[in-house]
Amino acid sequence: MNVKTVTLAYYSPTKTTQKILQGIAEGMHAENVRHIDLTLPETQTTPQDEKEGDLIIIGAPVYEGRVAQTAIPRLQQIKAGKTPAVVVVLYGNRDYEDALLELGDLTEDVGFLPIAGGAFIGEHSFASETRPLANGRPDDQDMAKAREFGSNIRTKLDNVASIDDAVRVELPGNTPYIFRDRSPLADRAATTIEETCTLCGTCAPLCPVGAITIEDTVVTDNLACTLCNACVKNCPTGARVVDDPMLNKIVNWVCKNYQARREPEIFI
Ligand SMILES: Cc1cc2nc3c(=O)[nH]c(=O)nc-3n(C[C@H](O)[C@H](O)[C@H](O)COP(=O)(O)O)c2cc1C
Ligand code: SF4
Ligand code: SF4
Description:
Elements: E1 5-10, H1 16-28, E2 32-37, E3 54-63, E4 66-67, H2 71-75, E5 84-91, H3 99-109, E6 113-121, H4 140-158, H5 183-186, E7 191-192, E8 212-214, E9 218-220, H6 230-234, E10 240-241, H7 245-257, E11 265-267
Helix pairs in contact: 1-4
Bound molecules: flavin mononucleotide and iron/sulfur cluster (2 copies).
């Protein structure tokens, strides 16, 4: 089957997922590429048409070894007939555990047929210059692998007459998925250093859950914050921080123990 239109659907607060999906689409040399950006709260998605020649690439970051929770209901808004899908998770060089399998299952539940999957590495959301973890990734090597993956997907689909002949991809992970106790992160949130905040307003519209309001100071809805770090990475004065003693302990440990470079894995 000849893929004409590639749809990129992604949740990507710090944009590494988006970047890899664009690389995969480049490698596919599709006539049309369209984006469904599910990152911001007001996003509305339109149902997918079951059209011969379409493919969707669905991407999400890994949080605690699973698909970032905020992404799940947003991805579930997309409905499909048996459209072929490629699932992609981005993780910060520690591990992706059950996230790729979970994303494959979610995708199948809404009506797609997952035909390929990939786990790629992006700069860790909690990384900084002084506490690096996969800084600058995806880099040139990662992007070359993303394009090569795109080219392999095209070859796979060129070799089947129609979607009815395509096979569901096998993805790694545990069944049932390993349980994650998310409570230690639940009441933690990004904060603002008032002395260096200029009230410029950059952070508020970037927040995927609308947790930031600019008043006389920057006000954060602590219960809504998912610690995605989009506000932190984009604050021009460094006033926005995630600086919590328990989180710092965990992140320092992860940064110390997961420096060995991991490489993208593809399943096709
Ligand atoms: C709350 C939270 C939990 C995370 N958990 C993991 C994890 O379990 N393993 C990992 O390698 N990276 C983890 N990361 C890092 C992200 O997966 C990584 O930075 C990803 O590239 C972010 O994608 P984005 O740029 O599209 O937002 C976590 C990040 C956050 C904010
Ligand atoms: S982006 Fe930084 S400086 Fe601007 S309002 Fe937000 S916290 Fe303040
Ligand atoms: S307030 Fe929390 S959820 Fe919103 S952008 Fe900042 S870290 Fe992400």
